[in-house]
C-alpha cells in the first residue's frame, strides 16, 4: 500500500524557519513550534504573516518587517540562507507533490491550522492520523466513534472523527472525515481518499499535482 504524506523538510536554520510558501499562506516554525499561517494571521512565537506567494513570505517579527525566501531563515539578528528540498510546492493553480527520500509523495498538510507531515495514499479510504498528530491538531479522539481497521501492523481499534479543516497549499476542504490510530501502527499520517476524492489528482512524471 502506498503511504501518503505532506512532508516538507525544513529549508533553513534560525529562530524562524520557513518550511514552505504557498499562495496566501506559509509553513513556518519558531523554536520548533510549527504551523500553517495565513496572510494577516499570527503563528508560532507571534510571527505575523503579511504576504505570502511566489516562494517568498513577508513577516513581522520582534518589531521588524522583512521578506524571507523559501529556503531562508531569520533570527532577531538577521536572515540566514538555508539548504534543503521541499517535497511539495505551489505550482500554477495546483500544488505539486514530489517524492521524498523514501520514494513516497509527501508534504506538509494544514490540519485545523497545524502543520502535519503526511504521505499521499490514494489507496487509503480515509485520512489517517496518529494519536500524536491528532493531539497536535487539537482533535479530541475520545469524541469519535470506534472503528476497526487493518494496518501493516495488523488489526487495530481506531477512532473516526471529523476534521474542521484540511489545507494543502491553497486548497481548503472543511468537514473531512479521518481516523486516528495508535502511534506505532503507521509510520506517518496519510492523506487518504476522504480528502483526495474532493480534489483533482493528476500524475505528472514522478510527481502528483493536486488541484
Automatic annotation (TrEMBL):
SUPFAM superfamilies xrefs: Acid proteases
Family annotation (Pfam families): Asp_protease_2
Gene3D superfamilies for the chain: Acid Proteases
Domain of life: Bacteria
Listed InterPro entries: Clan_AA_Asp_peptidase_C, Peptidase_aspartic_dom_sf, Retropepsin-like_bacterial
Entry coiled-coil feature ranges: none
The protein's name: TIGR02281 family clan AA aspartic protease
Originating species: Thioalkalivibrio halophilus
Amino acid at each position: 500500500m502506498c503511504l501518503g504524506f505532506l512532508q516538507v523538510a525544513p529549508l533553513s536554520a534560525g529562530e524562524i524557519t520557513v518550511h514552505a510558501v504557498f499562495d496566501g499562506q506559509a509553513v513556518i516554525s519558531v523554536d520548533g513550534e510549527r504551523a500553517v499561517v495565513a496572510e494577516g494571521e499570527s503563528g508560532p512565537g507571534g510571527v505575523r504573516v503579511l504576504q505570502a506567494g511566489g516562494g517568498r513570505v513577508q513577516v513581522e517579527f520582534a518589531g521588524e518587517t522583512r521578506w524571507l525566501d523559501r529556503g531562508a531563515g531569520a533570527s532577531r539578528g538577521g536572515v540566514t540562507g538555508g539548504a534543503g528540498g521541499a517535497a511539495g510546492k505551489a505550482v500554477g493553480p495546483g500544488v505539486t507533490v514530489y517524492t521524498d527520500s523514501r520514494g513516497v509523495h509527501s508534504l506538509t498538510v494544514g490540519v485545523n491550522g497545524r502543520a502535519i507531515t503526511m504521505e499521499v495514499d490514494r489507496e487509503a479510504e480515509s485520512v489517517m492520523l496518529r494519536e500524536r498528530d491528532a493531539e497536535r491538531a487539537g482533535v479530541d479522539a475520545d469524541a469519535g466513534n470506534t472503528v476497526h481497521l487493518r494496518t501493516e501492523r495488523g488489526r487495530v481499534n481506531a477512532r473516526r472523527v471529523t476534521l474542521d479543516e484540511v489545507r494543502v497549499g491553497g486548497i481548503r476542504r472543511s468537514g473531512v472525515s479521518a481516523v486516528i490510530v495508535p502511534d506505532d501502527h503507521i509510520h506517518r499520517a496519510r492523506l487518504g481518499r476522504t480528502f483526495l476524492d474532493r480534489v483533482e489528482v493528476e500524475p505528472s512524471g514522478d510527481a502528483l499535482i493536486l488541484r
